# Entry
Amino acid sequence: FYVKCLGMTLLRRRDCPDEKYTNAFLGYGAEDSHCVIELTLNYGWDKYQIGTGFGHIGIAVPNVQKVLDLIKSKGGKVAAPVKVGTVVHAFVEDPTGYKFKLIQRGQTREPFCQVSLRVGDIDRTILFYQDAYGMKLFTRKDNPAQKKTFAYMGYDESEMRTTVLEFEYSYGVEEYDLGTAFAQIAIGTNDVYKTSAAAQQAGAKIVQEAGPLPGLNTKIVSCLDPDGWKTVFVDNRDFEKELEPAAYSYRVTAMPNLKPLKG
# Structure
């Protein structure tokens, strides 16, 4: 589905029989310069709950209708395209039920354009991702008619140049079921220890202390935001070594290769 319908490339596959899981990494460019999706197959698991908190993954395409026709021809689930202002978009589902939002755009450096998560307090979320993770607020959109507010955050100079996090707040809804399917966001950093200290000081809950992963020796730190969404910061130099030659139903990790955090 990801290769034939969404046009992604299978960048690498990692089989770990001793740990009983398999990873596949897919995207539109090399992992050291683009956002990718990590699919995880855990042995013995054939189903996960997506929950109500996960929104979708946004993919920029030159022609929405063309992609819809392709997915429909292969038996995929699609919805009719919608035009909002000058922007055409449509939703599709992969075979396991993850939603993708196809957004019609011209040529773009990063087709993997957004990951959408629902949150219980938009102001709290914006402040947290600014203070704890050093992200920039690109746009905030209030829509009283739909009783929703959206915030778009990331690390580049413009949200049109990078993968962004879209946070969706529905008026009066404070909690969501995060499910078991969506795993985490992974972001590169030059120093996981400094990143851990800064995130913790800003109120992040550390769920895995900074240090090397057994087997891979890649240093990471794992944090939770106020809604329970998990972010993993990965040491850039260790990740480059992990990409060298010869060096998971599934869960989804969105892995934006964003500008490294300072500090």
Observations:
- The helical segments are 64-73, 122-131, 192-201, 236-242.
- Residues 246-250, 257-263 have pLDDT under 50 and may be disordered.
